[in-house]
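U., I forgot to send this yesterday:
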Amino acid sequence: MSFTVHATIRAQQRALPPIAIELLREFGEEAYDGRGGIRRYFSKRSRRRLERAWGSVPVRLFSKYLNAYIVESSHDGHILTAAHRTKRAKN
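Result:
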């Protein structure tokens, strides 16, 4: 998992731990943004997959990170930015 300098700074500023980003890459839904990036976020379906894999108690403790998202490059897989969602993800 490789970060750009911007993504490293943003993840630190927004208090997103590396485990949250790793879980987004593994369980998150993906949507292409039309500009060479892939958004990954937790949807209801991906939250259920996470609960089946990890159990309900860890997911409940992890709930403050379930509104996070990352943007990856579709060319080389670098993480471009990380943030918390404030609006519903458009599909």
